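Suppose you are handed a protein chain with no further information: no name, no annotation, nothing but its sequence. What can you learn? This example shows the usual starting point.
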Amino acid sequence: MILQALNDYYRRKCDDPDPAQRLPMFGLEQKEIPFLLEISSEGELLQLRDTRELNGKKKVARVFRVPMGIKKTSGVAANLLWDTLEYVLGVDTKGKPERVAEQHAAFRARIAALPDAAREDAGIQAVARFLDHIDLAQLALQPAWADALESNAVLSFRLQGDQDLVCQRPAVVSAALNVSTGDDAPQAMCLVTGDQAPVERLHASIKGVWGAQTSGANIVSFNARAFESYGKTERQGENAPVSRAAAFAYTTALNHLLRKDSPQRIQVGDASTVFWADKASDFETAVHDIFGEPPKDDPEAGTRAVHALFSAVHKEHGLSTQDDNRFHILGLAPNAARISIRFYYCLRLPELGKRIEQHFKDLELVRGSHGHDPQYPSLKRLLQTVCLATNSQPFGDIDRLPPNLGGAIVDAIFESEDTPYPALWLNAAVGRCRAEQAKKTQQGTQAQNVPYARAAVIKACLNRQIRRANLSAPDHLHEKEFLPMLDHDNKKPAYRMGRLFAVLERIQEESAGGPGKLNATIRDRFYGAASSSPATVFPMLLKLKNHHVSKLEEKGRRVLYRAFGDNRPDDYIGQITLHVAEIPMHLKLSDQGTFALGYYHQRQDFFTKKPDDSTITTASKEGTPA
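A reasonable first move is to predict its three-dimensional structure. Written in structure tokens, the prediction is:
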């Protein structure tokens, strides 16, 4: 299914209306060629042209369509009319002159092996004349020679007056295709196309998968008897017969999707995730904007992409042309010299949009008034918020997380709307809420609130757990999901304790003249203990609260913050504790997340402008005793 979908995508991209986006034909590949040897028809060197252009701080070589390269190992194998400087010119750059001589001989032999019709081409004849009389002294005078020699750069040839390379001339391309489709391979039914065709023994390497070998790795490969079919010992690709054309198609398509700066690829942890569709669609590249980190020069790109997707999904007749268009999501992870499939989904746009919408709905949370919190946070930012921040990674160092966590999150998003997020994500978020406060206190600095992104992660994880549990529970036992804002009707003890902790902190801040006046609040010193063992901390904090209340100048504020135990419906503490029979001794991990969410909601409510511009509104909104 995966290889078939990639094969279909390749066929579509071969006919792309934009020539720059077309994929190479079978037998050819896209290759960066940094230097070109421009020669005359007599084989004289005219110029060593540097094709590289400055992109940011790096020079990037121009990409050309060339005959498919040989899959190289430790042996000597030359490409047709393009290769490294050692192969093309026979110049030793690594102190191995005997091996370089073999490489250059192999390069010339590859040209000599071309059919007679190809060797009669004017470009091939010019290259042959050049190779017969290589003038290294003249090459050394070229401005680009030092860079090419230092890096053993890839070279190719271009004939004077031509726009195409010599290896792109029709006679050479025809010869390359004939070699690629020769009949020396065994015939079998292709598992991708169903046609009888020559089987590809060694599939081209897949490059660009994070953590895999830089030279590339394989999805289809066999290197041990345990993986081989009966009678196929040491016959590699014959164990899973894929035709040469199909093998070229799927590997070319996948390498195209995984290319650098691809708009159809995101990297989350160890999962290199790519997206494509059966038919051309604007949403084929939108997923990168939706989940990826927005560019610095356009921070609203992700928000626009999300709104466009939601608009299309909810528009009454907006999907008539997209209903039968399937979108593919493929997650790849490194596995030694191979690539493993982490997940694969094939969804139509309404299903895809619905699952993405549910993901952001689960994350939806009231945001701070300063406006820095993104409405639709990227996956990278959501992972960073549960990591330890460092000087080099102020938002959090993702490298400290298990590499498979990011892929597991993406898997949960696309599997279904009630698939729980990984438990490790919730564990990390709750643990960071506790550990970060303690760490900052030891440094003697002002600790931060439970941040927006971390609270959003906690809410999303808890809501998905609730939704999954509700699937198997009777209707009258269904648990209510957490709201984006403060929920006055939520009677969970952990949620109420989090709210109470926020109120106690607020009282302390007001007694000192307002937020930011204290070097450390009760949050900095007691958050960890209060969120895990409330009964050991809250009695002391409630007594301390009375001291803070006595310092308030306004009588109305002192009434609002009455002593614990009054249980009056017109004060914060009495209303919050109205449905709490006793302070819990211990809170399990999920309840610690509920505590953090209650704390966050109550803190945000303090700084949210009320209709009457009064902070007493919160207490008056509470429900009456059951």
